[in-house]
Records
---
Amino acid sequence: MMKHLISSIYRKLVIAKRYYRLHIKRYPHLQKCYITCAGKNDGAGAQTLAILSTQLFAYDTGIKYVHTPFQKIEHNNENNPDWEKDWEEFFGLGEGELKISKLDLSDINYLKISDISQIPLNASGNLYIVSQCHDYANLFPNRYKSLKGKLLEKYQSFSKQQYQSDMYDYNQLSIVLHIRRGDIISKGKLSERYTSNDEINCLLQNIISIISQNQLKLSISIYSQGKLEDFKEILDKHQNYNTKIYLDECVFKTFNALVNADILLMSKSTFSYTAALLSSGIKIYEPFYHPPLDDWLICDRKYSFNRVKFQKSLQYFLSQKKSFVPF
């Protein structure tokens, strides 16, 4: 355990020293190489964030990004034969990028590496195959802001009209929650990523108290898995706020709803983390292994947050809300 921790810290120090953006121009050989993200077979959120981290690393360093489409994605519960193709179109991550199928590999030395600290700084013409570049992205999460415009262009390249759950209401604030259930339970292997109904109620009450002070109307939408009775405490406590719950909803509709939220309550998951990177709303982040951006609000252990920062974020969002066009 200690050996793994020391190795992880050392790797991050190497990456921080090499790739801090003020020093990138010291390594011109990188700009004569290629990088692609491939070889993963977990969920759509995890794979998308892995690709985004690789695109971020590539755009920051000048190494040429090459897009490898999704090959195998988990949670295809309906055995959709076009599952990976549908996700590829939905995110549009390959739009405007060099495709791996178009790259002439005859004169390229391609290397599969486990982390970007292994990339040599004096080599040219290599193609590096990585599963992710989180070590870089997690060191510099705010760099995702520089990527946001490009990511939104990709995301908008495929119409989301069929995935809009409700008409966007400019006269009220939409609070959208992503609650991890299913494989995430209160006890067991992934219990650290579980958030109880009581904790969610506490967080909602803190948000609602501020919104009520501003005399604003609101709605609450919950996206999760399981049975209706699993969420009884939340529904009973907030039944006066036009609360709707979507269980086992189409994952494309779910993701698009998270992106379009006025106030997004993230779960400890890459699915809602990825949606937050695209969102123009207020993001409330519950700490897990991918760090927040500096304009996100962070939940503390009492499921509260910086109320002054929230108030400022709310006022800014309200000034922009009328010009917001949902996807």
Note: The mean pLDDT is 88.
---
Amino acid sequence: MPYSQFTLSKAKKAFDLTIVEDSRFFPEIESISPSPRLASELEDLPWAIAVGSEKARSETIVYPMLQEVRRIRNRQTQFILWTRV
């Protein structure tokens, strides 16, 4: 299902999911500021949103953030990244 057609109700129905609220999924962590490199890469954010394609969002938003996490973790985090063409 393309992300643009994703809804929570469709996912709940398709995968028989139960939504649990009022509990914390991720542990509390302190905020960090983006590096100058990430800030520079995210300058194209309005363009990626305006274009509206999943490819634009992936290349302009998601991938730079995953790379930032990898840099912060001293390249200890491994991601398997792929691109649909």
Note: The mean pLDDT is 81.
---
Amino acid sequence: MMRAHTTNTQINLSIDRLKDYFTAQQSPKTVATAFGLSVEELHAYTATHGHDMGDLYTKYTARGRIALCVAQFEQALRGNIKMLLFLGKQFPLQDEEKGDKPT
């Protein structure tokens, strides 16, 4: 566990845990606030450990969105009617006027 330091507080925050928060779609501002840091301090912390916060955020929020979509499709394929309806509205590949062929 790596430690981030602020002028007033010492907190525990690992890069792996930061990746988990970003995967869960948490913004840098939300994470920083939760640990009593400014976004600038969080950025400096990641840089100190050889990472760019922007790159981490972009990469891991994308992974989180993909994981969520996969989980939703798995639920729909298992017969979850509510998820089928939800995904049907999110991905309107069916058009009642044109039949069920994508355009």
Note: The beta strands are 3-5, 10-12.
